[in-house]
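ESCALATION

Customer reports they have been waiting on this structure for their group meeting. Please prioritize. Original submission:
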Amino acid sequence: MSYKFGIVGLGLIAEFHAKAIEALSGGVIYSCMDVAEERVNAFSNKFACKGYTNLDDMLKDQDLDIVTICTPSGAHMEPALKIIEAGHHLIVEKPLEITLDRCDRILSASKNKGVRVSTIFPSRFHEASLTVKDAINRNRFGKFVLGDAYIKWHRTQEYYDNGGWHGTKSLDGGGALMNQSIHAIDLLQWFMGPVVSVQAYTGTMGHERIEVEDVATAIIKFKNGALGVIEGSTAVYPGYLKKIELAGTEGSIVLEESDLKEWHFKDEIPEDNEIREKFASKTDSGGGASDPGAISFKPHQWQFEDFINSLDSGRKSSVEGDEGRKAVEIILAIYESADKGREVFL
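Update from on-call: job pushed to the front of the queue and completed.
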C-alpha cells in the first residue's frame, strides 16, 4: 500500500520530512500546509504536491492518510487535534508538545478516535543505537551503574534572533534541553529505563534576548538504581556531536552520534571486534551540533518506514506517541528542579 502524506508547517525540518517521504517505497508527498502563502507555493512546486494555507481545507481531502506536523514545538497540539478528529494518522516532530497536559490531550484524542500517533526520534533508528539496544536486551552490561548524556552544541545569536520562535517559552517550551538535547535524553531513557528523580541547574550564559536556558546540568536517578548526568548546551563553541555513555558491572559503551567510540564487555564474543570496526567512523553528517540543517534525512526515512510498516501489520510502531511523552517529562522535571532548587521526583 502507498500512503499519502501531508506536511503541516513548512520551515527547515519540513524539507527533511519531504525528502524522507520521497525516499519511501510506500509513501508519497500528497499535500502541504502553512499560513505563509509564499512558503506553500515554493514547497508545493518543489515537491509537486497540493498546497494549502488553511488546515481545515487540507483535512477535508479524505484521500490523505498520514499528516506530519513540523510547526513550532508549542504549536503542535492545535493542528494535531484537528488532524486526529479528521481521522488521519499523525507523526509529530519532536517534542510531542511542551507540557504534559498538551501531550496528554493529543494522546487521549488519538486513543478515542482510534488513529495512530508517533513522535519523531530518529536517533533511535541509527544502526549503532539499535546495536546498543540489542546488547541491553541480551543483558550484556550486567547491572547498570551509570548512564550519561552530553550534548554540547552551538547555536549563534542569529539563530535565536531570526527564528521568530526559538528561545521563547511559549513556542519553544525551553531551550537547549527541550529543543536540541531531547534526542539524546530520549536515547538515554530508552537505553536505561525510567527516571525516578532529577536534581538540576540551568542558566543562560552564551546568548542574549532569549527566555530559556542555553546550558543545563542534571543528576539523574534511574529506576534500575543507576545514577547519571545530563549536560545540555547551545553555548559551546564550536559544537560537538552528542554523546551517550553507558556503564555497567560487565560492560560499557560510548556512543557519539552514530559512532561507537567504546565497546567493551567482560565476556567478549566474536562479533564485538566486528562491531568496533563497523561503527568506528559511521557518522556522516554534523549531527546538528553547530548547524541545525547539518543532518541526514535517512533516519527520518527509517522512522517513517517503521510507522507505515506498523500500519500494514497492525503492530505498534517503534516510537508510539506515549514514547514521545517520556523525554518531555524528564526535561520538565529538570526545569522544575532548577527553578525550585531541589530534587524533583517524576
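Sent to customer with the following note: The chain has eleven helices and 14 strands.
Escalation resolved.
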